[in-house]
Each structure stands twice: as structure tokens, then as C-alpha cells.
Design a protein that fits this description.
Chains A, B: It holds the Pfam family FAD-oxidase_C. Chains A, B: GO terms for molecular function: FAD binding; oxidoreductase activity. The structure is a homodimer of 454-residue chains. Chain A has 454 residues and is of the alpha+beta class. Chain A has three domains: 89 residues, Uridine Diphospho-n-acetylenolpyruvylglucosamine Reductase, domain 2 (2-Layer Sandwich); 118 residues, Uridine Diphospho-n-acetylenolpyruvylglucosamine Reductase, domain 3; 186 residues, 3-Layer(aba) Sandwich (Vanillyl-alcohol Oxidase, Chain A, domain 3), CATH 3.40.462.10. In chain A, the strands form four sheets. Chain A has a seven-stranded antiparallel sheet with strand order 15-12-14-13-17-18-16, with helices on both faces. Chain A has a five-stranded antiparallel sheet with strand order 5-6-10-8-9. A four-stranded mixed sheet of chain A has the order 1-2-4-3, with helices on one face. In chain A, helix 8 runs antiparallel to helix 10 and helix 13 runs antiparallel to helix 14. Chain A is globular, with a radius of gyration of 22 Å. At the A-B interface, strand 9, helix 7, strand 11, helix 8 and helix 15 of A face strand 9, helix 7, strand 11, helix 8 and helix 15 of B.
Chain lengths: 454, 454
């Protein structure tokens, strides 16, 4: 192995291959902090597509597993190293080119989402997808997981903005798919197939992203409810009439955690909170009125509206900051289950039951307009029994979502943490088809083995 | 073969299998009217998914090709029969169920697009995708080609509204993919892979479609230009500021054909026309002003705005009716090429050159906001030389689009008419990957052989 690694190091730019064990340690896990992550033999940090091709050709020749890695902010263990693998980090691939005429950005995978947004904003353009990890997650990782966020309810997910890509296959072939074309149905939808494929089909080395005109500042509505069902009814009523730019949910525990953390003056006795925004030019006032009246009709105990962007941003920050707020309380297991919107009350109630039965603390925030929820399980990792109960709750929540016609992951990905529940959701026939496609593209199974598929 | 067909007939509902040659004749071609279409041995009209499974199991056993067919309104020969095949028409599969709570429609493939829209409208909901064939094309065919339309520039294409499907694979296995979930990243993006796959990977037997709240009536702007470049500049300027609900282009020949056909009072000397709409609630007046001022800034010779829906509908009808208007003038070869928007003037000029060189009449209409154009070649099919020149022009336009970084098909599909140009656009490596996926899903090659791939 040593000789083979030396050969690879010779083929790559100076310093691109790292075998120092202290540095390697930092590349073993993503933000799920999975204790079962393996140890790679090396980390490579390619400077461009040609380097990625070299790595994969080498890996194919030596039958070495390659674990692609963006910023390591993933929450499902999708970038956890495998023993004996090479971790391929895209962190050095940071070029970006904005074309205002086609309203596209051509970006390498290593930039953060915020960096892409900022470059687009310099041309009065906007890249909408906004996972909460916006400042730390890489655009390549966003594409590999089809990341969502808060604005999806109106503006869609990462995949809706990817017009084309360059991707390197398991044998080192680099393909160009799509481009700055808004409509293109020539051949199979291969670009779409690589989106959300979590590194098991290829390594994305460039993305062509669709940009749209920047939106005006949003108006914000906050509503409190004394029942989750009332809040869920308000979600259904509002989305039947308008498309809000944000429609977030926080449960009783989350409201209190946010209040502990940020002192917003929220009613600590409330059972549910909705945080909504409208950015419709010329229609924000009308949309705010629609949100307010539907919340009131559905029994909100308190409704507050503002078109001060700073005030709105404070509420949004409280919502985005939830993981940080509860992180202080213990280790986290972050859920990402989704259900059809009418099942939201059943999911929230079911999660409360699981918290009781498993004797764990669960905080629930949700992209309610999409039915995508994040029950956050907080536990003490030094207590083996508490860890076990947390893991049991993690499993039960997925089973609950599947039973409600939902999904085990709305935007974080399957990775390694949720892999064993995927067959329960998809069924044997869909798993078999998935395996057929994986085998067709990566017959040696060297690309991110153990992620998504066993 | 006769005995085998009898066995299949026995397995299907009465009358589902047709061998009458007069009836079969009507199922040989789609609307491309390809003279090279083959003759099937039978037409089957399944009543549901179980019947489709029977047909495919039977076909796999007897190595018989199956050509899936929606309404036969395709324009690329994607539903052209193959000699000895069975044509599988979905026309009898017409169930629809609207769920206002999840804002979804669960539909069988045989309904027309308009029928889906109408059912959604009964609940105050809207299914946006609107190919010009809206009244005659099937929703299953729309999904199989990832059909576009006029509203795509703001609202996206068919695939953006497909949340889930039931699909029958080549071996008769029926799979359920996705469902009424707005965000779901569990496993590979298989739903997306079947969208636009033109019947070569499976037969779609049910779709779960995302619906959105109905939009208010649109305001309309019509602008005339004495140069194509000026019109294209206006497109770039407008789309940098707002997202119009429609942004259509007609060239000099099309303006005159529309005027012959409908007497709108258009200036026959104009070289280009833009037809634009805004449906933004509360912001239509502002968007109309943006469109008008940008057209004027870019040198429009005449600009007309109206918020009378009837007047707007008359212009839209003139645009939608273009195929009908020129159909009287001869046989048509319909192009569907797309380019990055800044290449629009080069494409229009290039097409004019091709019309001159090949001595054919070409009318150009375009979904300009998407860069997706429809040069319509009109020729006399009884004149072999004219037919030959038309076919040469058809090929040259695709080569022109590829040379401009564009696509041979923006929304109609590759089918059989454009198949031989697909490798020129995609390249050998992408074709090889396409073939690997096709072979993984349909190892016998019985699903729509000759479409997309040779």
C-alpha cells in the first residue's frame, strides 16, 4: 500500500496527498460525529478535475475505496471514512464564475453555499437554496445530498438549481452533463441522477447553477398556538392560498430552548410556533394578511407581524440557531424525517410519545411548509444507557415517519446512519433497482462504500 | 406469434388487445408523422397497472418489443411503432384523485394535461406545465418527455411537478417511487431518472403531481422590434430583473403567418416580436412597467400593454396556434433546439441562413425566456427534392444549436427523429453511461427500442 500511495502522491500536485495521522484524524467523520467511522490511509485534496480523475484511476487500479468529502458538515455520516480508504476532499476546488447574461454560476465544489450566494449578489442575482449550514457547508456537498433549507417551500431545493455538472465516474472518466440551458431533454436526466447520490455514483467536480433575480427583503409573521394540530391546520390553510417564502415550525421544547438562548420574549407555555415570511414584490402586505388571518382562524393565541427586516432576521436567527442552542445541552442525534403535511400533527405527537417511552429529550423544529421535520435528540454520550435510549428513539422516529407515509430523510441524506432503514421505506424492488444502477456505474464498489447501500 | 398473442389476450380484459389492421394503422405513428414508422403486431390498451405488468412479463418471455404510447401527440417519433412490436397505449388509464390537503394530484397517464388542470382548478389549485399540446397531449406522455411549455420560464417543466410515480420495469416489476412529499432524498433520484426517459426505462402507470395555488389572471405586453438582436437583448434585460410568467418570441415569418391566420393588426415589417405576461399578485403593474421600459430601452419599435385577460388570451392564442397556422402551408418538420439565451440572435440568424441555403421556408417561434426555440420547416411532401432539402435543414439546425453550446431538444424529446444527432451533443462517454443505465434496467432491450438510443 505504501508504494502505491507514493505513486499516487507523485501523480498529484505537491502536498495534495496527506498521510499524517493527526491531520487524517480530522477527516474521519462528518458532523454526525459517528463513533463507528473508520480510518483512511490517506486524505487527498485535489486542485481540479484532472487530479480527481488521477485519484479514481489509481483507486480503481488498486481496488481502494474513495470517500468523497465536501466541508464535512453532513449530518448522516455520508462522509465517514472507511478503514483503508482514501478520503477525497474537495476543499481546494474553489473557482467560481458568474455569467449575468445566462444567469448562471459555474462553481467548483469546495466553495461554501454562502460564498456562492455572495458572488451572485454582486450581480444582483440570487442562489436560493439555504440549508441551515449555509455558512459552513460546501456547494458540492449541497448537490451530493440535494440539500434543502428554509426557502424550499417557495423556491425549491438544490437540485432545482443545478443545470449541469462535471462529474468523475468510478473509473476516472470525466463527464460533462447539461450546461447553461434552462430546458434540455436530450438523453436521460443524468444530472438529476447524480444530485443527491451521496458520492456513490461519482464525484462532482463542477456545477452550473441557475440564479434568479434578487428578491426584496421579506416581511415576517410569528404565530403561537396552544396545540400542534392548530398550527398544522394553519400550515395547510396558508399553503392552499399562497406560497410563503418561509414556513417554519417549532415545538414547545424548541420554543423554550430558543427563549433560553436568545430571549425573544416568546410565550413559554405555547405548544407550537410558526415562523413565516413573504418576499413577494408588491404583495407582501397581502400575503402577511393571509398568514395572519389563517393563523387566527386556526386558533393562534398570539400573532405578530413585522416588515422590519432586522426584526424578521432575529426570529430567523433563533430558528437557524436551534442546533447550536441545544448542542450545549448534550450530544445530538439529528433527525430529518418528512411526512405529507396533514400527517404533521400525528408525527409531532408520535415523537412526543417516543421521547416519553425512550426517556430522552427531543426538540422539534420543522420546515413545516414542506412537511420536513428535525426532531433533535439530546443525550449524554458518557452514559451508555442514555446513548442506547437515544439511538432507539432515533430508529423509532424513522419507523414512525415511514408508517405515516413519509421519508427517513428530507434533506440530510441517508449516509451511513440511516442506511439500515432505507429498505423499510423504499421496499425490496426499489432497493434492487438502486443496486443495479450502482453496480452499472461502479462495478468495483469503490465509491463511498457503505453509504446509502450496505 | 399468433398463439402467444392469444395467450396475452386471454390474460387481459376483454377488448384490451387489438390486432385489427385498420385500428393498428392509427397507432403506428405519433404527430411527427414519420414515414419510416414500423407496423406492430398488436395494440394493447391496459385498464391499469396490473395489465401493464402482464404485457411486460409476456413481452419479456417472448422477446417482443413494447412501444409505450400516450396520446400520440409527440413530435420526435418517440411513439413510432417498431415492426413486430406491441404498442402499449395508456389511453384507458384515466383515474384522477386530487388531495387539497397535500396539494397533490394522483393521476393515471391517460388523462390530458388540460383534464388534470381542470380537476385541480375545482379545488382552487393549479398544475402549471403547459405544452402547446395541452388539450391533446397525455399527462403520461408529458412526464415521459419532461414536457415544457410557455409558463416554464417562471414555473418550470413537468419534472418539477412530479413528486412520485408508479412505474413498470421491463421485467414487469411495478415500483412505487416518491409520493406526496415535497422533500425526500431517501435513496437515488429514481423518479427524476424516469422523467424524460421516453419509455426506454419503464412504463409510467401513475403520477403524483405537485399543485400550487391558482394564480390571478395575467397582464400582457407585446413588443415589436426591427432586429432579432434587439429583442434578444430585451429578453436578457427583463429576466435579469424579474421572472415573467411568459416570455415568447416570434420571428418575421411567424408574425406574418399569425397575421394571415388571425388578423391581430401586427406590423408585418417587424423582424421580431416578444409576447410577455406577468401574473405576480400585486406586482403585475410593476412587472409590466419593467417589461415595457426594457423593451423600449432595447429599441422596440412598438410596445403594447394590456391587463384585459381576453385581449392577452388572443395574443397567446396566436402564439399557441402557430403550428396550426403554418400546417396549412405544407408538411412540417418541427425543431425544438435550445441555446444559452445570449446565443439567441446567432441561432435566429443561423436559421435564416439555413433557410436560404437549403431553399426552405422556416418559421421561428420560441420560448425566449428559456432559450428554447421551435424553427418550423414547411415543405411539400409530394416533392422528393423539397423533402430532402427540408430534412437537410432539420439536421443543420441541430448542428447549429450544438455548435452554439445548445441542445437538439428542449422539450419534445429525442425520439427516433433526433436520435442520430444525440451523440454529437452528448459525446461518447455520456452515451456510454446512458447505454449502461439502459442495459441495467432493460437488459433484453424490449422497451421502446430505437428511441433515444440506436
Amino acid at each position: 500500500m505504501h508504494a502505491a500511495l507514493n505513486r499516487l502522491a507523485d501523480e498529484l500536485p505537491d502536498g495534495a496527498l496527506i498521510t499524517d495521522s493527526d491531520i487524517i484524524e480530522r477527516y474521519r467523520r462528518d458532523s454526525a460525529a459517528d463513533p463507528h467511522a473508520g480510518t483512511p490511509v490517506a486524505v487527498v485534496r485535489p486542485a481540479g478535475t484532472a487530479d480527481v480523475q488521477q485519484v479514481l484511476r489509481w483507486a480503481a487500479e488498486h481496488h481502494v475505496a474513495v470517500v468523497p468529502r465536501g466541508a464535512g458538515s453532513g449530518l448522516s455520516g455520508g462522509a465517514d471514512a472507511v478503514d483503508g480508504s482514501v478520503v477525497l476532499s474537495t476543499e481546494r476546488m474553489r473557482d467560481i464564475r458568474i455569467d449575468p447574461a445566462t444567469r448562471t454560476a459555474v462553481v467548483q465544489p469546495g466553495l461554501t453555499n454562502t460564498e456562492v450566494k455572495r458572488a451572485a449578489a454582486q450581480h444582483g442575482l440570487w442562489y436560493p437554496p439555504d440549508p441551515s449550514s449555509i455558512d459552513i457547508s460546501s456547494i458540492g456537498g449541497n448537490a451530493a445530498t440535494n440539500a434543502g433549507g428554509l426557502c424550499c417551500v417557495k423556491y425549491g431545493v438544490t437540485g432545482d438549481y443545478v443545470l449541469g455538472m462535471e462529474v468523475v465516474l468510478a473509473d476516472g472518466t470525466a463527464l460533462r452533463l447539461g450546461g447553461p440551458l434552462l430546458k434540455d431533454v436530450a438523453g436521460l436526466a443524468l444530472t438529476k441522477l447524480f444530485i443527491g447520490s451521496e458520492g456513490i455514483l461519482g464525484v462532482i467536480t463542477e456545477l452550473t447553477l441557475r440564479l434568479i433575480p434578487a428578491q426584496p427583503p421579506a416581511s415576517t409573521v410569528v404565530a403561537l398556538f396552544d396545540s400542534v394540530a392548530d398550527a398544522a391546520n394553519a400550515v395547510v390553510a396558508i399553503t392552499a392560498e399562497i406560497r410563503p417564502a418561509m414556513l417554519e415550525f417549532m415545538d414547545h421544547a424548541s420554543i423554550n430552548a430558543a427563549e433560553d438562548h436568545m430571549r425573544m420574549g416568546l410565550d413559554r407555555s405555547a405548544r407550537a410556533m410558526l415562523l413565516m415570511q413573504s418576499d413577494a414584490p408588491g404583495a407582501a402586505a397581502a400575503e402577511v394578511a393571509t398568514m395572519v388571518s389563517n393563523c387566527e382562524k386556526c386558533g393562534a393565541t398570539e400573532v405578530f407581524a413585522t416588515d422590519d427586516p432586522a426584526e424578521g432576521a432575529a426570529f430567523t436567527a433563533a430558528r437557524r440557531g436551534m442546533f447550536g442552542a441545544v448542542e450545549k445541552l448534550g450530544s445530538l442525534l439529528l433527525e430529518d424525517v418528512g411526512v405529507p403535511i396533514p400527517q404533521l400533527p400525528a408525527l409531532v405527537t408520535g415523537v412526543e410519545d417516543i421521547a416519553d417511552t425512550c426517556d430522552v429529550q427531543i426538540y422539534m423544529v420543522a420546515h413545516a411548509g414542506d412537511g420536513n421535520t428535525h426532531p433533535i435528540i439530546v443525550y449524554d454520550p458518557t452514559d451508555p444507557d442514555a446513548t442506547d435510549r437515544a439511538e432507539r428513539a432515533f430508529a423509532r422516529i424513522m419507523e414512525l415517519a415511514i408508517g405515516l407515509g413519509g421519508t427517513i430523510t428530507g434533506e440530510h441524506g441517508v449516509g451511513r446512519l440511516k442506511r439500515d432503514w432505507l429498505p423499510n421505506q423504499l421496499g425490496d424492488d426499489v432497493m434492487a433497482l438502486t443496486r443495479r444502477i450502482k453496480d452499472a456505474l461502479d462495478p468495483q464498489g469503490i465509491l463511498n462504500p457503505g453509504a446509502v447501500l450496505r
